[in-house]
């Protein structure tokens, strides 16, 4: 028999990477990461009123929903198998003030939404945020006085808000305001109120990013913001600082960790997962979503392919799940597969 060895065989030592790529079935057999419906958390925007489905111009395909319409949407998400939703309220301007006091109203918009979901949809979780920015007249995540965001007073307030949200039925509290000590304080507050079963998903590394713009339009805080959030969000330049933030949250009792934004910070996702081993999530934020949508609308990219590719990137980077505005679209695609 003639020797059919090729120069390539000699160069590679008879190891050819393409053997495992030769057919669809082999590619599926060796696939390292997969996106499933269990990986999806759906952020949803809530507005006061009834029968409201209000499109958000900066986020094509995303809507502000009144509680009744939001509950209908959550039922659909649950039927698709999405494990959890994360509500964000667009509060009436006349209810916003310098201290974000509206977050302490047991019947505020986010608590009404949570209570309604828990009464109507039994098989989906609610992950709620206690940051003050939807409730403040200045757009900051904490209490602002004399140009300074007050850490300790803000922590006192978000602890009270966390208890109220748990009382309304929230399954996980996910504080995003990045105040020092908030995770331990919230844990103690929840436990003292008898909410030992309510988890905490920490925004462990939330960066001072330019990718939040469409979100701020969605909850109408962009035009309110006085100054910036650099004194409490992490600088995009600082990876080690982000790990130190995450480490403190772990020590204080966080059950899960989140990195925000997502795709520009895949290295942080990987480092957080490797360092702490806790369930780790990424938030594919509004700017990431809108970039994909805008490019697809121009015909420059294949929206569905890029949507799925970005989610796979999060999985490859060690994430256990992703908060994404694509959640329902992805769940429908996976249901057809």
UniProtKB/TrEMBL annotation:
Catalytic residues as annotated in Swiss-Prot or TrEMBL? 206, 260
Q: Name one GO cellular component term.
A: cytosol
Which keywords does this Swiss-Prot/TrEMBL entry list? Answer: Heme biosynthesis, Lyase, Porphyrin biosynthesis
Would you say which domain of life the source belongs to?
Bacteria
- The protein's enzyme class: lyase
Catalysed reaction, written as an equation? 2 5-aminolevulinate = porphobilinogen + 2 H2O + H(+)
Q: Which InterPro entries match?
A: ALAD, ALAD_AS, Aldolase_TIM
Which biological process terms from the Gene Ontology are attached to this UniProt entry?
protoporphyrinogen IX biosynthetic process
The record's EC number reads 4.2.1.24
Q: Name one GO molecular function term.
A: zinc ion binding
Which pathway does it serve?
Porphyrin-containing compound metabolism; protoporphyrin-IX biosynthesis; coproporphyrinogen-III from 5-aminolevulinate: step 1/4
Q: How does it assemble?
A: Homooctamer.
Family assignment from sequence similarity: Belongs to the ALAD family.
**What is this protein called in UniProt?**
Delta-aminolevulinic acid dehydratase
Gene from which this protein is expressed: hemB
């Amino acid at each position: 028999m003639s020797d059919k060895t090729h120069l390539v065989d000699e160069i590679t030592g008879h190891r050819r990477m393409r053997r495992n790529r030769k057919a669809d079935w082999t590619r599926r057999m060796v696939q390292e990461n997969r996106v499933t419906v269990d990986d999806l958390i759906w952020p949803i925007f809530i507005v006061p009123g009834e029968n409201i489905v209000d499109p958000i111009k900066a986020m094509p395909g995303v809507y502000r929903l009144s509680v009744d319409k939001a509950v209908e949407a959550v039922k659909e998400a649950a039927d698709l198998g999405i494990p959890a939703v994360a509500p964000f309220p667009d509060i009436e301007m006349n209810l916003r003030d310098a201290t974000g006091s509206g977050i302490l109203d047991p019947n505020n918009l986010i608590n009404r939404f949570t209570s309604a979901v828990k009464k109507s949809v039994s098989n989906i979780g609610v992950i709620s945020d206690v940051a003050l920015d939807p409730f403040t007249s200045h757009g900051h995540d904490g209490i602002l006085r004399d140009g300074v965001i007050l850490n300790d007073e803000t922590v006192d307030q978000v602890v009270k808000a966390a208890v109220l949200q748990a009382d309304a039925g929230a399954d996980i509290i996910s504080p995003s305001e990045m105040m020092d000590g908030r995770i331990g304080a919230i844990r103690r507050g929840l436990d003292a109120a008898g909410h030992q079963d309510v988890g905490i998903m920490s925004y462990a590394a939330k960066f001072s990013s330019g990718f939040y713009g469409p979100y701020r339009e969605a909850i109408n805080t962009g035009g309110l913001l006085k100054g910036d959030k650099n004194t409490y969000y992490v600088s995009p330049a600082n990876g080690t600082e982000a790990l130190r933030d995450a480490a403190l949250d772990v020590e204080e009792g966080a059950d899960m960790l989140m990195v925000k934004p997502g795709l520009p910070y895949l290295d942080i996702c990987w480092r957080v997962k490797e360092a702490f081993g806790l369930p780790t999530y990424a938030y594919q934020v509004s700017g990431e979503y809108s970039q994909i949508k805008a490019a697809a609308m121009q015909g420059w990219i294949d929206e569905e392919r890029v949507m799925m590719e970005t989610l796979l990137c999060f999985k490859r980077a060690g994430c256990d799940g992703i908060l994404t505005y694509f959640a329902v679209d992805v769940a429908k695609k996976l249901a057809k597969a």
